[in-house]
Amino acid sequence: MRRGDFHDRLHRAEAVIRVAPGTRLTGPAAQAAEANGRTEHDGWTRAIVPIESVDQAHDEFLRLGAAIEVLEPAELRDRIARTVAELARLYA
């Protein structure tokens, strides 16, 4: 089995993201951003990246803090927003 075949089966969904300049993505997300990302007027890069699941992407993207914005899917964006709101309440 080719490594690419494994990742194709593993990553069954996609997310649309924006990342701040200098942000280092890893793995398939980094490869996808390099291949299809486009730099916007504010210097951030918009890209479509593969994700395994909303749960996995939530954990992976949350570690990047304010250096990433998830635009789609709505379920992932909403989940990250809820987590951030909970963190803000905790640290307020």
Describe the structure.
With 92 residues, this protein is α+β, with helices and mostly antiparallel strands. It contains 4 helices and 4 strands; from the N terminus they run αβαββαβα. Helix content is 49%, strand content 23%. The N and C termini lie far apart (50 Å). It has helices at residues 3-10, 27-36, 54-62, 74-91, and strands at 13-19, 38-39, 45-51, 68-72. The chain has a 4-stranded antiparallel sheet with strand order 2-3-1-4.
Give the arrangement of secondary structure elements.
Layout (H helix, E strand, L loop, with lengths): L2 H8 L2 E7 L7 H10 L1 E2 L5 E7 L2 H9 L5 E5 L1 H18 L1
Antiparallel strand pairs: 1-3, 1-4, 2-3
Helix pairs in contact: 3-4
**Derived structural class:** alpha+beta
Low-confidence stretches: none
User: What is the average per-residue confidence, as pLDDT, rounded to a whole number?
Assistant: 92
Strand order of the largest sheet: 2-3-1-4
* Gyration radius, rounded: 14 Å
**If helices are DSSP runs of H or I spanning 4 or more residues, what is the number of helices?**
4
Helix content: 40-55%
Determine the strand fraction and express it as a percent band.
15-25%
- Spell out the helices and strands N to C: HEHEEHEH
First-residue to last-residue Cα separation: 50 Å
Number of strands: 4
Largest sheet: 4 strands, antiparallel
| Shape assignment | globular
